[in-house]
Amino acid sequence: MALNGKIAVVTGAAMGIGKAMVEILLQNGAKVALLDVNETAAKNLMEALEKQYGQERTLFLKCNVESEEQIKAAFQKTAETFGGIDIVCNNAGILNESAWEKTVSINLVGVIRGTYLAQEHMSKLSGGRGGVIVNTASLAGLGPLLTCPVYTATKHGVVGFTRAVAAASAASGYGVRVNALCPGVVQTELFTAFPSKLGQYSHLADAGQKIVDNIGVLTVAEVAESLLELLTDETKNGEALLILPKGKEYVTFPSLV
């Protein structure tokens, strides 16, 4: 898929990985709807983006991915404003072992909700043009992060859901590819706040730091570059792309069916 002229939706778009996703999409000619609950950060970002790319290529919509009503309205507004939807990046996420139900709600339920809404808009069976969905998972979606069992569970869920829904989409003829990004540790506010979000496992903070020291830290730009690969390569569907400072690779899974 060539990105020039395509219409994208990014959740958790105001900061961190989401911001980098927005920027690389715009750099490659897409129009982007930025969905986020952080209105202040989003407005500051929008000012900078409008100066660089013009007002007609970006749209900010305050949206909590936990609210089906809000995200439905945001998708509809995007389609009405730009004339459809071609790309959805379900990126909003948190790490908070104390607020574990909220973590599940945002990290997993929000991704499922965003994916199904994206399919409604993009499926060729319902008048859409087809497209691509990329869900932000994590290295923790491929192996256990001992300091964060709930975060680990949500990201495993994102990987499993992405692979299954990608196969279902292909078998149904929707014309929509679905892939997962699995970055290691990324230099974002989520990472810097990590030690204070471990809840009952705060005593394992040193063990968590050892993992960080061993694998290194990615920049948000490195993650965004991998997003570009999953969007543009038409052969990629149901993939989990692991991204680490030492390089990236597509994860292979055992064949069970």
Describe the structure.
With 257 residues, this protein is α/β, with parallel strands linked by helices. It contains eight helices and eight strands, in the order E-H-E-H-E-H-E-H-E-H-E-H-H-H-E-E. The longest helix has 24 residues, at 149-172. 46% of the residues lie in helices and 17% in strands. An eight-stranded mixed sheet has the order 3-2-1-4-5-6-7-8, with helices on both faces. The chain has helices at 16-27, 39-53, 68-82, 100-122, 149-172, 189-192, 205-215, 220-232; strands spanning 7-11, 31-36, 58-62, 87-90, 131-136, 176-183, 240-244, 247-250. Helix 1 (16-27) crosses helix 8, helix 3 (68-82) packs parallel to helix 4 (100-122) and helix 4 (100-122) packs parallel to helix 5 (149-172). The radius of gyration is 17 Å and the shape is globular.
**Mean pLDDT value:** 95
Structural class: alpha/beta
Q: Approximately what portion of the residues adopt beta-strand conformation?
A: 15-25%
Computed over alpha carbons, the radius of gyration is: 17 Å
- In spatial order, strands of the major sheet run 3-2-1-4-5-6-7-8
What is the CA–CA distance across the termini?
29 Å
User: What is the number of helices?
Assistant: 8
Shape, principal axes of CA atoms: globular
* Low-confidence regions: none
Number of strands: 8
Order of helices and strands: EHEHEHEHEHEHHHEE
Percent of residues in helical segments? 40-55%
